[in-house]
Each structure stands twice: as C-alpha cells, then as structure tokens.
Amino acid sequence: MKKYNYGLVLSGGGTRGFAHLGAIKALEDHGIKPDIISGVSAGSIVGAFYADGQSADRALKAFMSKRMIDFLELVIPKDGLIKMTGFEKTLRKKLKAKTFKDLKIPLIIHAVNLNTAEYTRFDSGDLVQAIKASASIPVVFPPVVIDGQQYLDGGLMNNFPVEPLIGKCKKIIGINVNPVGKENNIKGLKTLAIRSFHLSMRNHADLRKDKCDIFIEPEKLEDFGILDLSDAKEIYKIGYYKAVEVLKKAK
After folding, report:
1. Per-residue pLDDT at 65 exceeds 80
2. Least-confidence region, from 14-18, 34-38, 103-107, 129-133
C-alpha cells in the first residue's frame, strides 16, 4: 500500500520558481493537496514555504516586494560572486519552521556534495541551511558548508528529483520551470555562469517526466531572468494557467 496520495516534484529554475507557486495555487483550487514534496534549488524554496503551511498566495507576497538583489550581499569574487547572507535572513524571518521536523508536510531537499561528488538528500536538521545548499548556483554563489562538507545546487546532477517519491505515492505531480530558449544577450561572468548551468540541466525533466502521473511545464518562462523578482506576478500567472489547463485534461 502506497503511503501518500499525492507527491509533488518541484524543479529548479531561479525566480521562474514563482510559476511553481501559481501551479500550486491551481492544485489548491482543484482540491489537490500534496502529502510529500521533493524539490531542488528554486523548488526547495517553494517547497519549504508550502510545507511550512503557507498558501501559494502568501508565499508569493513574501518575496514579490523586492528584487532578489535586495536579499543578497555583493562580494568581491572569490569562490562565488554573491554571498547569500541577506537571502538567509529573509528565509529565517519568513519561515516558521526552523527544522524539517517542524514542517507540516514532509519535504525532501537535494544538493550536490562537492567533496564526495554525491547527490545528497536533506530531510532532517536545519531547514534554511539545506535550502541554501540546494539553491547555491555554481560560480554565482559560494558553496554552503554543512557538517564540514561543501554543497552546491542540486540541479547540477538532477534538476527534477522524482526518484524519492516513486513507489510511495498513488499519484505524482511534477512541475518543471527550467525551459531553455534562445538568449542573445549573454554578457558578464554571472550571466555566462547561469546560462551554462541551466543548459546543463535542460534534459533532466525530459528524462524523468514519464515517472509523473501529471506533468506541468509552463511555456514562455525563458523570457524571464532567473534572478529578478520584478516579473513575479506574471510568472505566477503563467504557472497557474498552465496548471489549470493540464489539470482539466487530466480529469
């Protein structure tokens, strides 16, 4: 007998993750509530807010008022371009849960252990540290140290972590917000690093989407920057309407 009714997989994708929130709002409107969540990078952030008991609308409001740069502290490039100090403070302020145990819904977060070259899951301990590790884009952000080990964005190895939910859920819903379209304005180290990183992840969801009973992949997200909050509402709407479309067909 499978333990959970609905499992939810949330991909990485920077601030395109607001489409996750829109899709989750559509799930709520259709009476679907995930019983367990597996997320990576942006998906780990959204997953944490939802598992914390916050609605999609409330989570959106927590982040849409400022640009991502306001959450981050620029530093001289050493092991990364941007320190995540402000981002960490924001997460600790907005999330009620301090540890995975405090969450209302089980959550699995994924990161890459640089020291062992392993894809690592976090489902216990300090919640914010795990989120930071999962969302630490190589070169753009420095590695996050947990128990003496260095971690980077889990999307490096698997940007669509459906595997932990297979065999445990009656239905698996997957949301991918990492489309990679054409980009004509690639200037600067940060832009180059982000573009290269997302190109390396583009096939992850395609290889795993057949593991989902419902797969949601909003179009047009490639038109939006991945570290800019200014289009949060529009990205949210794109995720919402795409999810509504998919859910209607799934009936």
Report:
1. no
2. 14-18
Query: Which residue, 188, 174, 179, is CA-closest to 81?
Result: 188
Output the six-digit token pair for 96: 């009620």
Instruction: Return d(Cα 18, Cα 210) in angstroms, integer.
Output: 24
Pairing status of strand 214-216 against strand 169-175: parallel
Are 153 and 204 within 8 A, CB to CB?
no
**pLDDT tens-digit profile of 67-89?**
444 555 554 455 555 677 778 88
- Would you say 7 and 38 are in contact if contact means Cβ atoms under 8 Å apart? yes
Could you report how far apart the first and last alpha carbons of the chain are, in Å?
23
Tokens of 118: 């392993």
Tell me the pTM: 0.89
Q: Answer yes or no: are the C-beta atoms of 242 and 216 closer than 8 Å.
A: yes
| 3-state secondary structure at position 176 | coil
Which residues lie across from 107 on neighbouring strands? 37
Give the pLDDT band of residue 193 (cuts 50, 70, 90): low
SS3 content of the chain, % helix, strand, coil (to 5): 45, 20, 40
- Region for residue 148 given its phi and psi (left: phi exceeds 0; alpha: psi -120 to 50; beta: otherwise): left
Beta-carbon contacts of residue 46 (< 8 Å; ≥ 6 apart) = 10, 17, 20, 21, 24, 39, 59
Separation of alpha carbons 78 and 55, rounded Å = 38
